[in-house]
Amino acid sequence: MAVDLLLGLQWGDEGKGKIVDVLTKNYDIIARFQGGPNAGHTLEFDGIKHVLHTIPSGIFHKNALNIVGNGVVIDPVIFKKELDNLEQFKIDIKSKLVISRKAHLILPTHRLLDAASEAAKGKAKIGSTLKGIGPTYMDKTGRNGMRIGDLELDNWEKKYRALANKHEAMIAFYNVDIQYDLKELEDEFMKAVKALKQLTFIDSEEYLYQAQKAGKKILAEGAQGSLLDVDFGTYPFVTSSNTTAAGACTGLGVSPGQIGRVFGIFKAYATRVGSGPFPTELFDEDGATMGRVGNEFGATTGRPRRCGWIDLVALKYAVQINGVTDLMMMKADVLSGFKNIKICTAYTYKGETISHLPYNIESENVTPIYTEMKGWAKDLTKMSSEEELPENLMDYIKFLEAELEVPIKIVSVGPDRTQTIHR
Ligand code: IMP
Q1: Is any ligand 1 atom within 6 A of the Cβ of residue 133?
Q2: H or E segment to which residue 184 belongs
Q3: Distance between alpha carbon 34 and the CA centroid of its chain, in Å?
Q4: Which atom of ligand 1 is found nearest the CA of 114?
Q5: pLDDT, tens digit, for every residue of 151-179?
Q6: 134 lines ligand 1 (CB under 6 A)
Q7: Pick from 97, 41, 105, 30: which is nearest to 72 by CA?
């Protein structure tokens, strides 16, 4: 059985959590493959909103097993808070959630290093979520990291101490004013590690291999978005993992040939949180309306998200590098009420019109070229079938499908599980 893959095609916050939750009934296993608590996957059903950071979005379904894959970085403190929040829902966590031994640990000093690095960058800061993501992946590729499997060793605290001491020296090297009480942070960390050790650690690549052989259906859940990919995103304003399809292979240990469908999620417009180029960003009333109606605030940091029109140059690039087979368009309801909708179909770049994503997309290098379509006024949030959708929205959908050359299979018209139109 193939492994299907779900990932974001923009700068994150596309609505992956909601769609994983909607699709989980079709799968036996949901496996997160990269990122960490920088993610905020929001799910809404039965009038309750849930935000997950590290735990896969299939956790609310009775029959699905949730795997935190080797490509994920885990902060035990945040993980424990997530577990505590889930307690009230009487989920049998121990049988439904397992962690790869090869996933790396975020130490308290990784978080401090993140803060020190951003402070030292000043205006050039990345706008990181400050969850320690960059420093943890740096230790992973630098071959200094600590993994979940280390917690099973007798001497893990010795290893921890050596790494934390090294980090403290590095923090001092940054020479910025970072206030912290390491003892307090470490007490919290050690408590959280104890809670984490109650869960089952597995060799997840072997587990997934056997599960596939046994015919289990597996969905790999991505975090962040393709334009934040460390290789293909708007570097250096990116996260530190491969958020694109290839990341699922390295982040779970499944071979490229085992990937089946690739579900690409995008918003009907575009948003970005943190620094970095965003060619179609709006600084006017239209952008403010998208932010207000779409409730565009980061699920992890609460920061307001920057908003703009959809960018098909960037979206086509994401479809291409991920090999997307099915598209899912989120937050169509937020565009209700706009008289006209703009779609960026090309850029002017160094005096030429181009339709591929160039090396440099800062505003001084590219100017978006827009096509305009008529908007729609109707409230979509109570609609449940394609037949009810306004004609102008259908024209918008068809235009995007023609440009992207991939069918849009789901149109989301609100945050709730039920506000999902399948096509
Ligand atoms: P980091 O991964 O926390 O270091 O953040 C690097 C950049 O990616 C910053 O611009 C963040 O705002 C952005 N980012 C990280 N995770 C997410 C996410 O889950 N959604 C949206 N943006 C994110």
Answers
A1: yes
A2: helix 182-196
A3: 9
A4: 4
A5: 999 999 999 999 999 999 999 999 999 99
A6: yes
A7: 105
Burial of 394 (0-12, 13-18, 19+ CB in 10 A): middle
Distance between Cα 398 and ligand 1 center (Å): 31
Q: How far is the CA of 187 from the centre of ligand 1 (A)?
A: 27
Q: How much is the pTM?
A: 0.96
Q: For residue 108, which amino acid is it?
A: P
CA distance 403 to 185: 50
The string of pLDDT tens digits covering residues 201-247 is 999 999 999 999 999 999 999 999 999 999 999 999 999 999 999 99
**Cα-based distances in Å from 41 to 16, 61, 99, 235:** 7, 15, 18, 23
Q: Report whether residue 36 contacts ligand 1, using a CB cutoff of 6 Å.
A: no
Cα four-point dihedral sign 394, 397, 402, 408? negative
Nearest CA, atom 15, ligand 1: 38
13, 114, 229, 311: which one is catalytic? 13
Strand partners, 29: 65, 218
Active-site residue flag, 104: no
